[in-house]
User: What shape does this take?
Amino acid sequence: QVQLVESGGGLVQPGGSLRLSCAASGRTFSPYIVGWFRQAPGKGRERVATILWSGGDTAYAASVKGRFTISRDNANNTLYLQMNSLKPEDTALYYCAAKNGGTIYSSSGYIYWGQGTQVTVSS
Assistant: This one.
């Protein structure tokens, strides 16, 4: 069974930065696509950024493009999300997830999910 554990969330002022990490453990972790999602209070889950586990193609939500960067370290089974120029509207519970097929542009098909890490952007 694969387990995903997020870390790196916290409270940050508007304009600040945070780097989220997602460590995968369990049986051999070799998904096709991994990504970050978020859910703010009272809102639906939003796909933030996705990347092919093998590297290369990435996709970002329009709301974070140019501010967030997704990356992965295959050797250490870790996914990252560098978040810069944070805004209050980025406040949400951030989840990492993985799937074995599909495309980086689709939010469906994710079978592995972490428990989430809270990001709060406030002065």
